[in-house]
Specification:
This protein is of the alpha/beta class and about 180 residues long. The chain contains five helices and seven strands; from the N terminus they run βββαβαβαβαβα. The protein has a single domain, classed as Flavodoxin domain (Rossmann fold).
């Protein structure tokens, strides 16, 4: 780890999240805000970091099952969907909190696109994901493989149905990795 302490580092909270029809607690529900975005905003409140929403140029279908089919095909072909926005200030960040839902055991393919667009050598990356039973899957290993010159810390997995009440869990996790609340 670099000499900069996590609690003094400039943080980016980059996340992919999907509102609309989502699988939560065994049923399909319509979420006005995606579960991962809820957690990303909690991390922002606690750390004071900057938010960046990772979005694909071609939006995923509104229907949950159709989205899972598209995501499965993207994973099969190692697709790298184009993104709607890009950061011009990546060099100014020391720590990147990387958020995503667990899709087919790993990150959605737009998150791979994001990681591959920037030189993240020397940065610390900390994953957080939302899921409905799969935890982080192989996503942290995929981040390590994609960003071999970065320090990749163990991540946090939160069940989608629990995100609204996860603030204490998120705060405890951040304390555990030395990311103190802003004063």
């Amino acid at each position: 780890m670099s000499t900069k302490n996590l609690n003094t580092a400039k943080c980016l909270i980059a996340y992919f999240s999907r509102a609309g029809n989502n699988y939560v607690g065994g049923t399909i529900v319509n979420l006005p805000v995606g579960n991962t975005e809820v957690i990303a905003k909690m991390i922002k409140e606690i750390t004071g970091g900057d938010l960046f929403h990772i979005e694909a140029v071609h939006a995923y279908p509104k229907d949950y099952t159709e989205t899972t089919d598209v995501a499965k095909e993207e994973l099969r072909t190692s697709a790298r969907p184009k993104l709607t926005g890009h950061l011009e200030t990546m060099a100014s960040y020391d720590r990147i909190f990387l958020g995503y839902p667990n899709w087919w055991g790993t990150m959605p393919m737009p998150v791979f696109t994001f990681l591959e667009e920037y030189d993240l050598a020397g940065k610390t990356i900390v994953s957080f994901c939302t899921h409905e039973g799969s935890g982080l899957g192989r996503s942290v290993a995929d981040v390590r493989r994609t960003c071999p010159k970065s320090t990749v810390l163990e991540g946090l997995a939160i069940r989608g149905g629990d995100v609204k009440t996860a603030r204490d869990e998120v705060a405890g996790w951040l304390r555990d990795i030395e990311m103190n609340a802003k004063k």
